[in-house]
Structures are given as C-alpha cells and as structure tokens.
Amino acid sequence: MKKIGVLTSGGDSPGMNAAVRAVVRKGIYHGIEVAGVYSGYQGLIEGNIKRLEAGDVGDIIQRGGTKLYSARCDEFRTNEGQLKAIEQMKKEGLEGLVVIGGDGSYRGAMALTERGFPCIGVPGTIDNDIPGTDYTIGFDTALNTVIEAIDKIRDTATSHERTFIVEVMGRDAGDLALWAGLAGGAETILIPEESYDIDEMIDRLQKGRDRGKRHSIIIVAEGVMGGNELADLIKEKADIETRVSVLGHIQRGGSPTARDRVLGSLFGARAVEVLLNGGGGRAIGMKNHQVVDYDMTEAFTAEHNADMSLYTLSKELAI
Amino acid sequence: MKKIGVLTSGGDSPGMNAAVRAVVRKGIYHGIEVAGVYSGYQGLIEGNIKRLEAGDVGDIIQRGGTKLYSARCDEFRTNEGQLKAIEQMKKEGLEGLVVIGGDGSYRGAMALTERGFPCIGVPGTIDNDIPGTDYTIGFDTALNTVIEAIDKIRDTATSHERTFIVEVMGRDAGDLALWAGLAGGAETILIPEESYDIDEMIDRLQKGRDRGKRHSIIIVAEGVMGGNELADLIKEKADIETRVSVLGHIQRGGSPTARDRVLGSLFGARAVEVLLNGGGGRAIGMKNHQVVDYDMTEAFTAEHNADMSLYTLSKELAI
Amino acid sequence: MKKIGVLTSGGDSPGMNAAVRAVVRKGIYHGIEVAGVYSGYQGLIEGNIKRLEAGDVGDIIQRGGTKLYSARCDEFRTNEGQLKAIEQMKKEGLEGLVVIGGDGSYRGAMALTERGFPCIGVPGTIDNDIPGTDYTIGFDTALNTVIEAIDKIRDTATSHERTFIVEVMGRDAGDLALWAGLAGGAETILIPEESYDIDEMIDRLQKGRDRGKRHSIIIVAEGVMGGNELADLIKEKADIETRVSVLGHIQRGGSPTARDRVLGSLFGARAVEVLLNGGGGRAIGMKNHQVVDYDMTEAFTAEHNADMSLYTLSKELAI
Amino acid sequence: MKKIGVLTSGGDSPGMNAAVRAVVRKGIYHGIEVAGVYSGYQGLIEGNIKRLEAGDVGDIIQRGGTKLYSARCDEFRTNEGQLKAIEQMKKEGLEGLVVIGGDGSYRGAMALTERGFPCIGVPGTIDNDIPGTDYTIGFDTALNTVIEAIDKIRDTATSHERTFIVEVMGRDAGDLALWAGLAGGAETILIPEESYDIDEMIDRLQKGRDRGKRHSIIIVAEGVMGGNELADLIKEKADIETRVSVLGHIQRGGSPTARDRVLGSLFGARAVEVLLNGGGGRAIGMKNHQVVDYDMTEAFTAEHNADMSLYTLSKELAI
C-alpha cells in the first residue's frame, strides 16, 4: 500500500484524536501517505479528503471531540452511496481505510471491505459496548466525567440529606452506569442488563436513611428509563422526594484521560499494521490486557457483556 | 460577647466551609467561643448546636457543600419557631449568630435581630443575586463548573456541527448565564432581566451557519424557560434541530475555587468583627473591591442588578 | 482608524486568547480591520503580521497560552528595532496597536506611542503586579492551579503528618503566594513585600504540631528564596524535616478560568474603544470593580501594592 | 475468622481509601468485624486500632491520601517490633490483616504471615512497580495528574517555542514516564529500564525544530537523573536552552480516578475473600484483565516489567 485514509464516524468520543494521530504518524513511519476524510462517511462520498502530514496531527492528542469531524450519513447505507465512496477513494489513490467509531460505523467499514476495499475498525465510543474488546476509546474519559459530576452532586446531597438520581448514557450497555456506580459509591445501579425490583430499591433507600446515611445516590442508565421517570415512580410508590440530574452531552466531551490517549495510540497504530499486512475486515481491540485484532463480523454477531461482578460488588459495598 | 454561633442555610454553595472556618477561627482569635449550629434554622430550633475548636474546622476549606449541613425549615417562619430558637441559643450561651446563606436566610436573621438577638448575614449562594454585594460565595465556583461543561459540550458541537442549548441555574438573576455566556463564547444568552426576540435569535443562528460556524451555543437561564422548551420553540419556528443540556445540580457542588475560598474567609472574618462591635442586622459584602458591611434590610429592599455590559459585549463578540 | 494590530508579549498567561479574540471581534464590530502580529515585538520587526477574521479567533477563548505566540526581543529595545517595527506596521496599514503583556511589554508600547504610533496596553501576566489595575489576565487561573496543587499535596501531608514547603511564582509581587496561602489554608506565607522571622515561623510550626495538626503548609514566593533553600534553613535551625514542591511552569498554563476569560474579553474590547477614540498611551485595567483606562506611564511610576489584609487574615486563621 | 484488621503503609496513593472502604464493608457483609489500624505498622505496634463500622468509611471513596494515615516504621523490621504487633493484634482479637501498600509493605506482611498471623497484600503505590499485577492502585490517578501538568506546560512551550523537561516519579520503574510520555505526546522518554543516547536525543530535538515543531517535551523518570541535571547536560552538549519542571509530590495526591476507585474496591473485596478462605501470604492483583491472588513472595522474587511496546510506539509517533 502507498496511501491510506482515516475517518471518524458516529458519536464523537474523547481519544479519537489520539487514534487519528497514531494512524497518520504510524503510516508516515512506515513510508506511506495518509489522508484524513472529513465528516465521516458523508465526507467519503463527497470526496472531502485531505492529505495529512505529521505536523497536521500535532497538538491534538489532548483535545476532545474529533478533528476530522463526524456526521450521520444515510446515503452511505445505499449501494449508490458506497460506490460513490469507493470512487472517491480511488480518485485519491487510497488503498485502505481506518474507520474509528462504534458498531454502526463498523457496518459501513465491513460493506466497503466486502466490495474489495479493505477497512479496519477501531472502537471509538463512550459506551464501551463493542463485542470483542474489553475497552473502547472514550469510555474512561466519560466515566471520569460522570464520577466528577457525582462527586459534585454528593456535596449537595450530603449537605441537604437528599436522595439523588443520576441518569447516565447507555441505551443498551450498562458499563458506564456500572463502573460509575461502583466508583461513585452509589447505593443503587439500574442497568439494561439486569431487571430491577423497585420495591427492593425503595427498601434499600429507607434502610440507608434509618442507619443514618446522609445521602443516597441512584445511577440509572438511560436505556432503563429516564431519571425523571424514575423519580416519579419512587415518589408514587414510597412518597420519597428525590432530585434528578441528567448528565447528558457533557459525557461525550472533554480532554481525554491518559488511558484513552494511550488506547487511541495503540489502536490506531495497530490498525495501520494490520492494514499494511493486507488485513481488511479486521477490528482492533484490547483483550485480556493485550492489543488484538479480530474478525470485524464478531463485533456484530457476538454479544457485549458488561462485567456483572461490578454489579454484585457494588451492592455488597453499598450496605 | 463571649460566645457566638454560626449556621448555613438555604441551598449549599461552594465556599460556605471557608466562611464557617473563618468565623470559628476569627472568633477564637478574639478570645471568644464559637458554636456550630447544624442543619440551619431547623437545628437552631432543635438545639443541634456544638462548640467548635480551631481543629474542628481544619481541612474543610477545600470541601464543597457545608459541613454544618443545611435544611429547609418552615417552622422557623413562625413566632413560635423563632422563640424556640432564641431559647436554645440562650441555653447554649450564644450572644450572636452568623448566618451564611441567601436572602431567604437573611430574613430569618433579621427576624432574630429584631427580637433582640444580633445576627449577621454572609452571602452564600451560587446565584450572585443578593443586593448590596458584587459577589456572593459560590458564584465563582458554579460559574467555572458551567464553563467546564460548556467546554465539553463544544467538543461535541464542533465535531458534529450542532447547535446546543445549555440550561443554567438562575430563577430571577441572570448572572450565571451572563458570565458563562461571555466566558463560554456563546452565540446567544437568555436571561430573566432582558426580553428576548426569538426571531432575532434564529436569525443569528442561521447567519452563524452561513458564515461557516461549526457550532452554536445558546445559554438559557432557567428563569426564562427550560432548555427543552426552548428547543421545541426553535424547532417549531425554524425547523432547526438543537441538543439540550440541563446542567442542574452539578452547579452547586465541587471544591470551591480560590476566589470563593478567599471571599468566604474575608466575609466570615468580617462578620465576627461586626458582631463583636455590636452590630446586629448587618450584612457582609464585597462592594467595589472592598469588603463592606451594610444594613441587612438593603438586601430585601434594594434590587440586584446584573452587569448588563456583559450582555452587550457578549453580543458584539459573538458575531 | 481603518486597521489595527494586536500582539501578545512577555510570559504567556491564560486568558490572553480571550483578549485577542475580543480585540479582533470588537474591531470588526466597529467596521475596522484587525491584524494579528505573531511572536510579539519580534514579529512586529519581522513583519510577521496577518489579517484576522472573526472566524480565525473562534474556539480559542478556552485555550491556554497565546495563539499569537510570544517571544523575547532584545532588538526592539533599540532605536533601530523600533523604527523597523513602525515601518512594518505602516506597510501593513496598521494605525494602532493593542499590546497584551506585562509591564516590560508596556514599555515597548509606550516607546511606539511616543514615536507617534498609538498603542494600548492590556495587562496579561499571572503575577498580578501591574500598577493601576486590581487584576491582570491570568492571575485567577494561575491561582487556581496553585490551589489544586496544594490540595493534592495536603492529601499526602495529612496522610504522613508532614510539613510541606510550596514554592510559587512571584519575583517581586506576593499576590499569588498571598491568595494561595489564604485559600489553601497555609500556616505560613513568605512574600517579598514582608520581612520574615524564621524563628517565629518555626515556633508556629512547632505549636501546630503540639496542638495535633497533622500537617503544615508553608507557601514561599520565589522572590523571597527558593523552596529548597528554605527547607535547608528550617532543617538547620530546628532540625525539622520538610518536603519541598516547586510548582514551576505549570502555573502559566491551562485553560483559563471563567474570570480570566471575562477579564480578557472586557479588557480587549475596551482597548479597541480607547484606540478608536484616539487614545494612544493608555493602559486598561479593573479598578474598584470597574473597567478603566489610565495613563500607561502610571504602570511604570506607581507601585503595585499587594493586599496585605490577606496576609494578616491568613495568620489569624492559621492558628 | 471473626475480626480482621486493615492498614495502609508506605507512600500514600489515591484509591487507598476505596480499598479500605471495600475491606471494611466486604468484611461486614460477610458478618465479621473489621478494625482500622492507624499510621501503618507503627500503629500496629502501638495498638492504634479502632473498630470501623460501614458508616465510618462512608464518603471516603473520593478522597485522596489515606484516612488510616501512613508512616515509616523502622521498629517493625525488628523481631521485637513484630512480636509487639502480634501481641497488639491478639489483644484486639484480630485474626487476619489486609496490608495496602508497596512491596516494602508486603515484606512486613510476609513476616507476620510467617509468624502465623495471616496477611494479604493489596498493591497501593503510584509507581505501578509490583510484580504479579498489571496495575497498582494510584497509578492511573498519578498518570492523569502528570498528563494534566504536561498539557499545561505545552501551552507555554507552544507559545514560546521552547523545549521542556518534565521530571516524573519512578526510581526503578519507568511506567509513569512511559505512559505519560505516550499520552502526553512527548518527543523523548528517559526511563530506568532503557539506556539512553544523549546524542540521539539531541539529534531528535534539532530535527524537530528543523521541521517546524513549536515545542519539544522530554519526560525523564527521576531514577534516570534529575530534570535539572538533564538540562545541564543538553546545554553543555548542544547549547540548547531547556526549561525544567519537577512535578514532585503533586503526583501522589488528588481525588482518585474512576479506575483507581474500582481497582481499590475490587482488590479490597478480594483480599477479604482470600483471608476468609484461610489464605495468608497472598497478594492481590489484576492480571490479564482478571482480579487474581498469588503467592506474595512472587512480589519480591519476580521482576516487574514495564510495557516496552509503549516505548517503541512513542518513538514512532513522535516523528
């Protein structure tokens, strides 16, 4: 290969820039050219592609968001869109593509690979929900953002003897809620992976009060229900007043943590290596403390399993 | 005086602990005893009062919330409640009281003063809305919390070319929205002090897009309307999609900034001095860069005026 | 005037970018062109000057350092250097210049003004040591950086029952040490403005230990002596082991606080107004809570006075 | 077992409190009593031991340092000291002990185990240098503290076109320098595990300048040499001026990251389980993404190996 491209797609996540930097510089290190595709698959279709030098990705490792921008692109799901994209890449002389994003982005990468254009998937999403990797880029930063928010909320909760409900991201995966709940010392965690018992939860709240706890914190993943909905439920069932904090979009932003920068760097570099070795259709990940690459289809067919031992431990420690 | 008390009341704000520490240690420095009243006026009525030594307020200057706790107390608004409170203070040998809180808390302090029990008001609220002082304890910390949130949101807004609405606290006062809007580089700021023109706002949004801005940020104080309500309005009027972030309770918490710690220290110390000089019914503040004390009734009768020059400047710079 | 320039000079300070943004956009708002001069007076001499549009200063309000870069320039102190600079500015069509920096930078601005080229000084330095203004841009951010460092050090100091010496910036002005000392709950503060009594300091340390304090923190401004030097002195005099932390360059960097962004915005905007009104040789400042402009020579001839009431209060509260 | 103890020893590290909380609550969950030993082995000898209830470890998961304090203790290295310690523990009814600390602390734990008093080691040190575990509690927080400092320094380095040397902790292990170097985008990393070539380093610096890099950052682990020493060397060899930042003690403090809180919780809980299953002389760790326990002697006899792939990658990406 002489020239490859890199794009970011789907929701942005902190550390994507570290991955972009690694793809560009690792490529240059191996003597090939690297081009950035702007605004995801949309930019691929439109030929919004520019060659990047080592200096172009300087001073971005510490930035949140993605310097290559991201966008939704319905057109790319069509045959026509994909053919346009391949045409654009041929025009630019690209022979391979690194796609940084979530599993939706992987599907696009797989489609291109199947059309003979080799793509590699790099897991970039705060949800940590891509099968085949223990961690995704952005999860650690989002988690620490949630933890800082909980720490702030606890100040008020303690001062006023209140129960707080904190709604965090996670439509299908409870990783963020689980880790944040354990690290934030939450009394109760509600995740999509586990059914909840509202009576048991209320019982737990009341016992905590009885033994003199000045505050209770409940973490709920958005995939279970909204924070305000939960507050209404608790009010109705037990006449307990709670306060709700919906963390929302702040969870996506911010300067990446050291770990997400390292992960982004490792993953981006490995993606280039795999591509240069001829390996289209592979996804990069961290598995049992090792950087690995695996068949990208595993990311669609396998299931992501949250670490339920955190759930159990969290309950035991929240007594 | 030989013994005084200190309490925190109303919503907690970062820096209250610095003020408590200052009251306690300044009192001890002047050879008097100081007692902490726990859970605000509720604790005063119930006699939840403990003597505090210098060491008891060690290592709290950096903590958010209030170590003396806070609570709402309807009973204290009654004659009976106030008489009980005075009885408790007499029992404890208190001869004066420093009340740290917002203007609601000041009313209680004034009531006690009028009953012959001298109280001093120290402005502790993140809203910065107490007449007679340029700054209240907690405003600077809350402002920086909002700014950090906006910085995070901007990462995503830029990456995805989106318009974000950020709802901040401020029922009657727009200070937080004003300062955050200017410091956060927001395109539009909606505050209770100023009527808004929805058409002008939309026009501004569209012009920004036309000249290639990758994102727009609108700050709305909760007193104007909710963020989601504003999003609906914009959608309806101009079919522009926006994302909403309701910052909520995180604005109250967190380790106080240097400024709020200094303000708390200066105000707490001055409160003790004024009390020792026989001055019940006074409020402490910062006016034109000087620590001042003034008639507490001014805090009810005068009006707080947000600095509208920030509003004008913000508009000029958001072109 | 139809076109003005803006440069940053001397040590960088957080908030300089907010000031640059304000100069550029306020200028454009008033219908004039604005050019950025890169690398301070060096760039002025070399003609490293580029026109800036509103979009060129987008997304910089939250960045530390200075996007216009800074540099030392001995040549500019010479007649020849200054004449070259004026020539370059004439070539570019500049009719006025906003100089953001410390008092050294002001001298250059005054020299140009005296040569008939009107300049305005905007106070940008973390030292807060420019006469005529209560605050300089960058001071608040540096102060909070110091406070965060002290908070971290206190964790260890408390855990190990240790005495820590923290050396902060401040060759001639003790503002940073004073504010940080009060906000950080330091036992002792050593500043250039006040002679110190080593015996009294040691006595204070020992008394603190006797009454059970788990840690002591001493803040020393670099202008008094180095932290390691002080540690040696204490060891020699009283055989007390201390740990030293020299905060160094981290004090200059970081995303500016809300206050420094607002200050930068207000000052930059005022500078443009004064320049457009024909006022060369003026400096901008904040005096008694008002944005002011004053004769720039005052910044050389008057003295900056640190607020010694903080010093006194800090001692009283550190009992 | 009916009662166990927990202590922290050696240098404090963020997340130790999460581990203490986990030991106490997991113990209570299993129906046994837990006592905190204050000030490490010193407190063990002196009988500074107090029973802890679930509420006693509330609100500490987010605190830096260690609530149980730490101290050096030469006496504990003697036969006599260890016998005293065992006597005290018998007096208190303790049947097992969890020791949270570095490998020095493990030696004490092993000594007690060999005397028939079962101890479990939990790895708490920012150095990440304990054989048998991929991560120690505190490493992630220290790493992020270093990264934040580097980000601040880069602002100034970029603004002034300077080369900075950042000295980080690590006497024998380069983990902190390695991870920080990769995550911080440093040009050069000097670690104890790898010999350095001063000429190659200078060559790299000069090439970076030639290709227009505005700044260079060199990370040096204290075990290689001091930052100032390195600056002198570079000055002498190549007449290049550098600035030095010695991060020092701030690396030990601060609120723990989410990861360190989770690690502390997992490790503390596992320690209790192993102790209850009769397993003295075991150490807890994270190996290949699994919580494990292993023979504590491995922590002395095996070698800790830093991940040198980070070193290689860092060089490749710093082109």
UniProtKB/TrEMBL annotation, chains A, B, C, D:
Annotated localization: Cytoplasm
SUPFAM superfamilies xref list: Phosphofructokinase
Sample GO molecular function, one term: 6-phosphofructokinase activity
Reported cofactor(s): Mg(2+)
One Pfam entry name: PFK
Keyword flag Nuclease: no
Pathway the protein contributes to: Carbohydrate degradation; glycolysis; D-glyceraldehyde 3-phosphate and glycerone phosphate from D-glucose: step 3/4
Reactions that this protein is recorded to catalyse: beta-D-fructose 6-phosphate + ATP = beta-D-fructose 1,6-bisphosphate + ADP + H(+)
InterPro entries the UniProt entry points to: ATP_PFK, ATP_PFK_prok-type, PFKA_ATP_prok, Phosphofructokinase_CS, Phosphofructokinase_dom, PKF_sf
Top-level division of the source organism's lineage: Bacteria
Coiled coil stretches, renumbered: none
Binding-site residues, ADP: 21-25, 154, 185-187, 211, 213-215
Binding site for substrate: 125-127, 162, 169-171, 222, 243, 249-252
EC number annotated for this UniProt entry: 2.7.1.11
Binding site for ATP: 11, 72-73, 102-105
Keyword Iron attributed: no
Binding residues annotated for Mg(2+), in chain numbering: 103
Key words, A-Z: Allosteric enzyme, ATP-binding, Cytoplasm, Glycolysis, Kinase, Magnesium, Metal-binding, Nucleotide-binding, Transferase
Active site: 127 (proton acceptor)
Family in the record: Belongs to the phosphofructokinase type A (PFKA) family. ATP-dependent PFK group I subfamily. Prokaryotic clade 'B1' sub-subfamily.
Assembly and oligomerization: Homotetramer.
NCBIfam families: PFKA_ATP, PRK03202.1
Function in brief: Catalyzes the phosphorylation of D-fructose 6-phosphate to fructose 1,6-bisphosphate by ATP, the first committing step of glycolysis.
Full protein name: ATP-dependent 6-phosphofructokinase
Organism field: Planomicrobium stackebrandtii
